[in-house]
């Protein structure tokens, strides 16, 4: 009992010795950056940073991004630490539009972002990837499938989605796929595609909205003059395997669609009255036609039996004249017309463009197959040059037999005389140029020979397997200058 009383007495002495200062030395400490985020609604939040070592002007940045995104329900931006930002949206529509519209830049600096998951710590979000639309160029028809597109996307980065218009007959020479790409790794330039029984094909990648990237290391966020490899590699050994051709051309709308109705200058002035028609004050007045004349003019414009007529505009009213007749023709290197996808694509593009003439090269199939395709697509006239084994093959389709006839052909061309009722005859020649460079001269000589065979107006279309400048070639080694000069000389002749 004495022992317990002694221990109790010691505890009382210890509590009595505690002072206010000692109590204040304990507790919790908060950092400056650990702000209260309890009011943030993490359903509609993005975490983002900019790929730069420069200091970001926060005020200018948030105003710029808000003006780019234009969120209908508003936007709140919070700087958690230098170059780490939280973007609070207030509706799924606004945040979805920003995600779909990526990539984004501020002051030409790439913005990397990621959507915040529910309950996730904003400061733990890893920001090292970005979504891009990538164009796949140079693919032959046998590789144009959803599976191949997905496989290529996973080679570039991680597949997100494919363009729904890829296989809907839209007339373009590439496919599109959306890919998540690591921004700290080199961009992919191309991919080799192989298939048994088919020639090797290279898929060339072009990135839409691609910001500044290094031509030496291929990493986004810095130009080549700031590349680390400059310090490790002698200048004469330094290679630049990347090029600006990896940037896809902007996808712009056609703003010249109204050019048919636009004029190059204002309407002419109305005729003024002669001195005898002036009033007492000597002022000139615009001479106006009698009411009856105006009414007759209006009636003649409405009368389907009346054509032409000058109603105050030189050459008549262009709004009341039919547009000039145009014969629509298309040419396509189909690389195998026996492919079901090729037939479906051709069917859809013909349905859209409604051409009267179609020239195909590299059909790579038998004559009866080509003729079946032409008849099935609604063409009366069909002419074929059979393939040589698994290569070559030409075809020309035309809508009506009376619209022309073939006047000559070879394994590399079909020469066609076009006849339109009430119009002058003219020639259309579909050409498939020699693919072997050592035999390219044969194509040039063919063009010269065809020119001498007739003096009629002449149109050439097809795949001539030649370029007229280095700018026409995408990637790889420079095009031989001798081939460019030889082709230009043939065109001049």
Any overview of this molecule?
Helix 10 packs parallel to helix 11 (481-492). The chain has 493 residues and is an alpha+beta fold. The model is unreliable at 18-26, 28-34 and 252-324 (pLDDT under 50). The protein contains eleven helices and 18 strands. 24% of the residues lie in helices and 23% in strands. The radius of gyration is 36 Å and the shape is elongated. It has helices spanning 2-16, 20-24, 58-69, 92-100, 146-156, 229-232, 291-302, 340-353, 367-376, 440-452, 481-492, and strands at residues 45-50, 75-81, 84-89, 104-106, 109-115, 129-137, 158-162, 174-182, 190-195, 198-207, 329-333, 357-361, 381-385, 394-398, 404-410, 413-418, 426-432, 458-463. Residues 184-228 form the Zinc knuckle CX2CX4HX4C domain. Residues 271-281 have a biased composition (Polar residues). Residues 330-481 form the Endonuclease/exonuclease/phosphatase domain. Residues 282-304 have a biased composition (Basic and acidic residues).
What is CATH's topology name of the largest domain?
Deoxyribonuclease I, Chain A
CATH superfamily of the largest domain: Endonuclease/exonuclease/phosphatase
Which strand-content bin applies to the residues? 15-25%
Can you give the helix content as a percent range?
Answer: 10-25%
The gross shape turns out to be elongated
CATH architecture of the largest domain: 4-Layer Sandwich
Secondary structural class: alpha+beta
N-to-C order of helices and strands? HHEHEEHEEEHEEEEHHEHEHEEEEEHEH
Low-confidence stretches: 18-26, 28-34, 252-324
CATH C-level label of the largest domain: Alpha Beta
Biggest sheet, spatial arrangement of strands: 2-3-1-5-4
Our Rg estimate from Cα atoms comes to: 36 Å
In the residues, how many domains can be counted? Answer: 3
Total number of helices: 11
First CA to last CA: what distance?
126 Å
What is the averaged pLDDT score? 76
Characterize the main sheet.
Answer: 5 strands, antiparallel
